[in-house]
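I am still learning, so would you mind making up any protein sequence you like and the tokens describing how it folds?
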Amino acid sequence: MRVSSQAKISVKAPAKIAPEALNADWRNQIHTLESDGKTVVVVQEETHIIGLLALRDTLRADTPQAIEALRTLGISCTMLTGDNPRSAAAIAATLGIDYKAGLLPADKVDAVREMNQIHPTAMVGDGINDAPAMKSAAIGIAMGGGSDVALETADAALTHNRLSELAGMIRLSRATRNNIRQNITLALGLKAIFLVTSLLGITGLWLAVLDDSGATALMTANALRLLRREKPQDAG
């Protein structure tokens, strides 16, 4: 279809088009494209519709693997997106996760706060629009190749820009927390034992000093066990 060089061309979401401008054929095409996981925009010449543009975000190659790894850790995932509900449903169905669609940045913040009230929630994002929601989450995680705003807002970042590293980050964090608890218990336990034995006259000063140095060595050795944890494979 030829377009006049003087014509006003506009590109809009279907929801912004006057209902009378969309006939049954256009509506059917929009429905089909959205059901296939695409975001549709309508191209108008003045008030006359001349075509549709179908856009779709491509999933990262390691997304299914990352989602499955998170499930094994007992972590559920929800996709927050500004795409239309039909497109979001199609993508979420391929991953087997929940979703909330048609969200503005403020809506993402509300969604994260709502989930945070039920259980601690981490928000993973890479764009400017994700930054407010990442700030509202218990922890914000940015993709390494994300925008500067997202990286500055986040509490942590996946430096290699691979979602598959997310589960590894969580496993290491949990192991570190357990290690800290073990070291605190070990340190306080040994000091309590030698405090009692010293007061009873069973142990002397040199054993107390040895306990302090020995506890430091034991805690350091315990912490070094974290270095033996399996590291994620680099992508070829």
Q: What stands out?
A: The first strand starts at residue 9 and ends at 12. Residues 232-236 have pLDDT under 50 and may be disordered. The radius of gyration is 27 Å.
